[in-house]
Amino acid sequence: MSRGNGSYSESGIFLRPLAALEGGDVKDGLPTRESLLQRVCRAPDDESWEEFLPYYREYLYGMARKTGLSHEDAEEVVQNVCVSILNALPQFEYDKNRGRFRSWLAAIVAKEARMLFRKRKAALARLDAHRQEAERAYLSKCDPDIPGRIAEQEWRNYVTRLAWDKVRPHFSLHYLEAFEMLSKGMRAADVASRLGLNRSSVYVYRKRIEDRLREEIMRLNRELD
User: Residue 31 — φ and ψ, nearest 5°?
Assistant: First the structure.
């Protein structure tokens, strides 16, 4: 779920997106090793693909769902996108100066969504009147061109959620509770009172988590895009 320029984690806290936490352009970060993307492009075997796919699948599925497709149709789009990616990887030459990998993924999602949309529309004639009406109503709410318009913000939200999942286990319950309460809009004084802390500690806890999140977001962007 998202709210403006941000997203909710599975625990329900509102996370500010990548741009708000980075404090700089991730393109300036120097990768410390060959990125996941580079590895799968260089050697698209089963091992590299199985490592690669779980990182991108949620992003692909989220983009497909944003077009208005049902869960089942979005899953079909994701499967077709994965096949397209796997077929393209042996000839794929990645150059960040020509565009982001996430933008390429969004374009493939839009293409596959349009193909599914056309297939469903062509099948209308084979349906009875009642099912035609329901199908037309469903298709009228779908917009397969959405991925191209929201790719950047969706990526930021996705990477922020992914970073949070990786960072969260490294902090104690007090740190997490203070951060979550502040993220939900509670005043620092109220958080301090609720947790039995002084207000300065609440700010320190938030800063330490945000610093760790920033580092993880930059690492994920080097690895995945």
Answer: -65, 140
Q: How far is CA 6 from CA 16, 83, 87, 133, 218, in A?
A: 5, 30, 33, 36, 17
> What whole-number distance in Å separates Cα of residue 42 and Cα of residue 176?
39
Structure tokens at 54: 């779980």
Across 125-143, average pLDDT: 91
**What's this model's pTM, rounded to 2 decimal places?**
0.71
Match 């009406």 to its residue by tokens: 133
Spatial CA neighbour of 197 closest among 214, 211, 179? 179
Domain boundaries defined on the chain: 7-224
At position 12, the amino acid (one-letter code) is G
Lowest mean pLDDT among 46-55, 59-68, 166-175, 212-221: 46-55
- Segment 11-67, tens digit of pLDDT: 444 455 444 444 433 333 333 345 677 777 776 677 777 877 888 899 999 999 999
Tell me the CB-side half-sphere exposure of residue 59, using CA atoms within 13 A. 29
- Which 3 state secondary structure label does DSSP give 83? helix
> Amino acid letter at 196?
G
Angle at 24 between CA 169 and CA 180, to 5 degrees: 30
Query: Rounded to 5 degrees, what angle do the CA atoms 141, 146, 148 make?
Result: 165
Nearest to 17 by CA among 38, 30, 3, 31: 3
